[in-house]
Design goal:
This protein is α+β, with helices and mostly antiparallel strands. The chain is built from two helices and eight strands.
Amino acid sequence: MRSFRSAVLVGGILLAAATPSPVAAYTFENIAGKWCTAGGSEQFDRDNMIAIVARTGERRNYHIVSYEYLDERIRVTWQNAEGKTVHTDFAKFSTDGRQMVQLKFERGPRREFHRC
């Protein structure tokens, strides 16, 4: 009986170590590409974030300074039109990769995005 308990304990430990964590690590592929929202769209590549305002069609190109892949979000650090470095956090990426949320920050509201 003792060896059975030991085998179950060891098996449980091995299974826990092999099971992936519920929060998968984010990568550039999670955010890359074009995303749409009610206010327009944003497209991310390695060096630029291109925003298009829906009501005017105005195209704004912002330089990406860096991407940070955090546990529950991706932080995009970019330069605004005045050349100031700011960041925007994106989270709640759907498991199918089709939805994400821009978290509210000092210069922008919470926005829900979908792939377009």
